[in-house]
Design goal:
Length: 174
Amino acid sequence: MDFEKMKIIDFGTAIPYKEHLNDNKSKKSMQEVLGTPFYIAPEVLNANYTEKCDIWSIGVITFMLLSGKAPFFGKDDAAIFAMVRKGNFEFTSSNWKQVSNEAQSFIRSLLTMDPKKRPSAQEALNHKWISLKKDIPVDETIASDILANLKGFRANQILKQATLGYMASQMVGK
């Protein structure tokens, strides 16, 4: 398994943050509610956010990569948004027993509800877990379990999308 070739894609709604500076170069918040439910930051749902929403999304991605599960889950988008707004997540699955306290601390810092208390990208890169663990090889057994969980998560989403697509096509025909 070659994690160095892993890519994060689908930045269709991304824009450079410099476009969100006032004339006097002070930051202004973004207001478009855009994003995928599992990864969206709570402040995005409130239509008042800065670049710190991306830090939240990195926290979600890190959580998923280390456990194969989403930190905020629900049966539909509204349920997921409700969980995101609460911001409660747990390190309870069996995979978390193998994950260091530093990694969990890193995720907690990224998934801090108050974006002003959330680390910047540079601060996140300087976190103890990143600086100490970046050169440690991946445990193949744990990585395989996590990959299986991620595949199941993805398959569930594909099934959901296919089902909704079928239902919509049946409604259009009537």
